[in-house]
Amino acid sequence: MLDKRYPAEPFRIKSVETVKMNTRAEREEIAKKAGYNTFLINSEDVYIDLLTDSGTNAMSDKQWGGLMQGDEAYAGSRNWFHLESTVQELFGFKHVIPTHQGRGAENILGHIAIKPGQYVPGNMYFTTTRFHQEANGGIFRDIIIDEAHDATINLPFKGNVDLKKVQALIDEVGAENIAYLCVAVTVNLAGGQPVSMQNLRDVSALCKKHGIKMFMDATRCVENAYFIQEREPEFKDTPIKDIVHEMFSYADGCTMSGKKDCLTNIGGFLCMNDDDLYMSAREWVVVYEGMPSYGGMAGRDMEAMAIGLRESMQEEYIEHRIKQVRYLGDRLLEAGVPIVEPVGGHAVFLDARRFCPHLTQDQLPAQALAAQLYIDSGVRSMERGIVSAGRDKVTGEDHHPKLETVRLTIPRRVYTYAHMDLVADSVIDLYKNKEEIKGLKWVYEPKMLRFFTGRFEHI
Ligand code: PLI
Question: Whole-model pTM above 0.70?
């Protein structure tokens, strides 16, 4: 039996949204109509929505209060100054550029920091991040430790950068041909795995030695900070806020999707210390996003983000957040369901290779498993395997990622432990009947970020 390591919700519920459960026959029809792509199922037809933790957070009473204080001026909104000073204080960067969401920041960083043909090493790819690097002429190179690609290896900091891989890239192409090095905290597609403070220090020192800039993908930085506090003895008594601040002290800047750890539903930003890069980012932000004082966000959204970012660093909040995800993972492990270990910060990843040993990777096992889980229980998840990985930009061949997973992503402050139990029971039931999961093939494959709108049918 599980022991009682799981804190109760450190909040009470003030407003609720009713969800409905369709019949299994209805869900079968819905999944077929959606081309067996969980992105194409209407929200109203979902019982428990674990598609993503992006923009699906529940805001606090203080954030809702902040919405009413939106200053919707086209230029110079007071909410922008609140957000800017909050980010400067908590992250420690000199300059902040607002964007409509994380990929807006990735696009601008690509424009100002990548010259065509330059390499952009990163600790595992992320879909939109790599897209914008490549769209700006960059060449992605994976520099995460090898163990991150193996679902069964349990390590405390499985998101760490392999310094030997960075050195080998420098030796191969020369530091001048590296646009910047990108460290994601945590690493989404590795399973929400954290990077240690020691690794950040070492990577930063290596980058400085060779004059390479280091940017962080800060999307889930507070979750990363919790793991540092929990697992790196030096930080066991350090407040989360101070850990976050130290993490960023090693970087030249960061991109941020505010839709995750900022506890909001939309927004993002780009930070940097360099004055010239900042001036160039200010030129691009007006092209793609909006004035440098809103960057695609409403004043009210910037206010909610400034408040949310501070709330996310409260110790009780982040402990509950991480341990609720861990509870779901532990229930599945206890029942023998194959998942990516250890359980990371934002999601439990089912290991579709071991879940569906009867399917080859080209039969899209994770896509098929996500579709079947929805049909069986109304729980919506997301494929993170061969479909999400896309095609090689040069050869046009499918990438074949080692990790073929289905992500059960937990929105922040939205679901209770009873919901986690329902999800666990549904997955365990499906695992007992895994032979019923049929392989899929493409019927429509979009050219870019194909997983969002692609369509499939049973083989
Ligand atoms: O969805 P955006 O544009 O606000 O952020 C893009 C983005 C950047 N980096 C990382 C690590 C992400 O996880 C990320 C977005 N993630 C989504 C949408 C997700 O479902 O995980």
Answer: yes
